[in-house]
Amino acid sequence: MMKSWLNSLVSKGALAAPIGVDFAAQRLNMLQTAPSAKGMVVRAALSLPYPVERAQLLADPRRLKAFIREALAAAPFAGRRVVSVLAPSEVRILPLTVHVPDGQSEPQAVARAVREQLGAAAVESVVDYYQVRSVEASGLDKQVLAAVAASSKVLTYLETLRGAGLEPVALDIGPAAIARLLAAMQEDFDQSVLLINFGASKSYLTVIWGRRLMLDREIDFGEMQLVDRLSRALGLSTEVALALLREHGIGTPAGAPHGAGEQPDIGRTVREILYQEFAALAEELVRTQVYVASRTRGSAISRVYLNGSVARYRHIQERVEELVRLPVELLDPYKAFHGAPLSTPVGSDTHGIALAAGLALRGEAHG
What we know:
Order of helices and strands: EEEHHEEHEEHEHEEEHHHHEHEH
Strand content: 25-35%
Structural class: alpha/beta
CATH superfamily of the largest domain: ATPase, nucleotide binding domain
């Protein structure tokens, strides 16, 4: 049977806000909020590398429990109630146009649309959905993103959390959590903004318009594509190509003055080698801008945020600005909160906690 995994699983009586927990590819990211006179602040935040591979850790209950105990003790987290999310590889996101006839509820219409698209597989799936903002979303037709996961995966993950000593309040939808974070950062809700979330082999484009999610889609662009291109072009091992990328970034920006010495030439060489990858990214960004304009009757994206692996490389901000001709900045999740964190964030990669921050904000603007 199809169910919503956003239904409350709350352990009543706990006063502290749930902790947003993201088991990312390389690190455990956690963030917890607390109320203040001006609004929500960060109570505690942490980004902790795994002692072993993610899959190995999650499959070892004793080691996972010890790791979670260490994480909770490393920062002033309160309680063990959590909001988390399945790994992207275990969730299928379906953009759907749903017809809601008289006498049928919106959830029923979404369930019918998912059954029509997935067939028999829908019976063994857990489904939730998020309504997408569009000027066309009126009347009997609604634009939604449906998140579908195998029931067995959902139940296994919930048991993994409980076995680690955590109390799951809910499982959220990743794009909805990211949209929630971006909405909390905005001052002008008539504008739309784009987040490019760079991954190892795929990246994700998320657009919010005002406070609502408008678009979330996967594209074939990732850190390892850049590494592979450098490796093949220069005859380097993957490890050396990755080190080169980390040292010199994605190439000297266009129009940068020529300097003396070897390094400026290396930067230009890297830029030339990676040209095709960024040309493909430019096409995806243009396609996204056209889609947004068509859905908003001409409104344009006002700002682009960068997050994820490639966002850490030198010159990426300037390179994307060349592609979109818009203001571009690295995503700072702390801008969604009022004032400085109540405690110092733990870990050297705390700007990678965007998803954990969005999970922690669940229940604010988006209910």
